[in-house]
TrEMBL record:
The species this protein was found in: Alexandrium catenella
Keywords assigned by UniProt, alphabetized: Calcium
GO MF entries: calcium ion binding
Residues covered by the EF-hand domain: 192-215, 218-253
Name the record gives this protein: EF-hand domain-containing protein
InterPro entries reported for this sequence: EF-hand-dom_pair, EF_Hand_1_Ca_BS, EF_hand_dom
């Protein structure tokens, strides 16, 4: 690898933009480089001299790369999970404890700049190599109640603790030594059923729309027609059978009801009504419906989709 050269491209951290901006090397003096760039806010010419490996310099990786590159860093860091605004913890030797912080920026050479607060509330900052043992990702505590959490409508609790279906749930479980609850339609139904009634009301389903939208990857809303299609027996609530018939083809989650069945037993709410209609259900109450294959699949999936054989799934009749 060669040393930085005059005229080489380099990104430098701009406090006015709160991010990196493009610059050029104007001078090289041993291990230090002088960088010039235009201030994004005012357009004024700026200049700064820094060590070539300073965290505020991001080298694009070329002949201009400094001799001391990422691979030669003390902790052998090449790839790391840190990026701006990532929640982290840094070890404070003076206080002998881990402090919660947030990544301000990361240099191209694997240095992480963290802002935090000391126990007395005063602000502090620290710069560490990405692989330094005094730096680690922060993971929220895991709620032990899982999908049956009594506080699942408490915004403060939801922000503090990780729950099933949160994007950081599995990583939090691994970091905290918890056995994760595997995502399933049954677990999702338990989560949406906030009053633990065994049925999902329209209000409960509407409250769960942001989560369902996130899981499906598309925006969902509960229209009048969609609710009527879901509540196909018209009793004003959605059973697990109805919920799974709707959610199965949309969310791609397993049923998660194996624990409800015993060998030779038909004792589950899934089988309480004749002819379980959940496609792929492991209970022995599942029976093919009479009529054509098209009619059978439409009934099994709650009649919420149009199907065309030979071409797969067609357009949705009603988007929930």
């Amino acid at each position: 690898r060669s040393t930085p050269r005059v005229g080489a491209l380099v990104d430098i951290w701009s406090t006015s933009r709160n991010g990196f901006v493009h610059g050029h090397v104007a001078d090289v003096d041993g291990s230090e480089v002088t960088v010039t760039w235009n201030d994004p806010a005012t357009g004024a010419a700026m200049q700064k001299t820094l060590p070539a490996r300073h965290a505020q310099l991001h080298w694009p990786g070329s002949a201009a790369e400094p001799v001391t590159a990422v691979a030669s860093a003390p902790w052998g860091v090449v790839e790391h999970p840190y990026k701006a605004k990532t929640d982290v913890e840094v070890w404070s030797s003076s206080n002998q404890q881990w402090l919660r912080g947030k990544v301000e920026f990361v240099s191209g050479l694997g240095k992480v700049y963290v802002v935090t607060k000391l126990p007395d509330g005063s602000p502090a900052s620290k710069e560490l190599e990405a692989g330094h043992p005094h730096l680690r990702l922060f993971f929220r505590p895991v709620c032990a109640e899982g999908t049956k959490c009594a506080l699942r409508r408490d915004e403060g609790h939801l922000a503090k603790c990780a729950h099933p279906f949160d994007t950081d749930y599995l990583e939090a479980c691994k970091a905290r030594g918890h056995e994760p609850v595997q995502p399933s339609l049954h677990g999702l139904f338990e989560w949406v059923d906030a009053d633990n009634s065994g049925k999902v009301s329209r209000a409960e389903l509407e409250a769960a729309m942001p989560l369902l939208s996130n899981l499906s990857g598309e925006a969902m809303h509960l229209s009048e027609g969609a609710w009527k299609a879901l509540d196909d027996d018209g009793n004003g609530a959605v059973s697990f059978n109805e919920f799974a018939s709707w959610g199965g083809p949309r969310l791609g989650l397993p049923l998660g009801v194996q624990h409800l069945f015993r060998a030779g037993s038909r004792g589950s709410f899934c089988c309480e009504s004749p002819g379980c209609g959940i496609f792929g259900c492991p209970c022995d109450g599942f029976k093919p419906r009479t009529g054509s294959k098209t009619q059978y699949i439409r009934q099994s999936l709650g009649g919420a989709l149009k199907w065309s054989f030979g071409g797969g799934i067609g357009d949705m009749c009603e988007s929930v």
